[in-house]
Amino acid sequence: MKFLKFGLLGIVFGIAMAKSEAISWFRIQEMFRFQSFHMYGIIGTAVILGVIGVALIKKYKIRDFHGNPIVFAPKEKSVTRYLLGGSIFGLGWALSGACPGPMVVNIGYGFLSMIIVFFFALVGTYLYGLLRDKLPH
User: Fold this and answer.
1) pLDDT tens string 100-118
2) pTM to 2 decimal places
3) Is residue 57 part of a domain?
4) pLDDT-flagged residues of the chain (< 70)
5) Cα separation values, 51 from 48, 61, 79, 93, 134, Å
6) Cβ-contact 28, 97 below 8 angstroms
7) 37 in a domain, yes or no?
8) CB-based contacts of 124: which residues, under 8 Å, 6+ apart?
9) pLDDT tens digits, one per residue of 87-100
10) Which of 36, 61, 67, 136 is packed most tightly, with the most Cβ within 10 A?
11) 67 lies in a domain?
12) How far is 81 from 98, CA to CA, in rounded Å?
């Protein structure tokens, strides 16, 4: 019962992804071909809302679900790290036509080929967990 609000939030997120056409392979390909501003507008809105959210968390010292303080640790500035990680993420996004959020929504919409993409996303996450200590962070 305590996770009901997370399930409802996931449903609202899925509806927002579908209605904004962020789950559309065509819209994602348009973005990577620089043919439309649509997806850049969605991503830009998400970034702005994220910045506002982080600012509010810091200002009001909002706590997490378990009551622990939310801490934002400073990260090492490494251009190589961000270029390599962003390139791998972008390549996967461009090849599959979906980023992690819309990938799950596409499965819910009945695009069963996304199960393959979802499976390999899980494999990649698992491999990262295994190799995390050996990777340069």
Assistant:
1) 878 888 898 898 999 999 9
2) 0.70
3) yes
4) 137
5) 5, 15, 21, 23, 31
6) yes
7) no
8) 92
9) 988 888 888 878 88
10) 36
11) yes
12) 23
Residue type at 112 in one-letter notation:
L
Neighbours of 124 (CB within 10 A): 13
- Does 126 fall in a domain? no
Q: How many domains does the chain have?
A: 1
CB 105, CB 14: distance < 8 Å: yes
Tokens 């929504």 map to which residue?
105
Helix axes 25-32, 79-96, angle to 10 degrees: 140
Contact 123, 50 (CB under 8 A): no
As given in the structure block, the two tokens for residue 116 are 């393959």
The distance of Cα 95 from the centroid of its chain, to the nearest Å, equals: 16
Do the Cβ atoms of 52 and 46 come closer than 8 Å? no
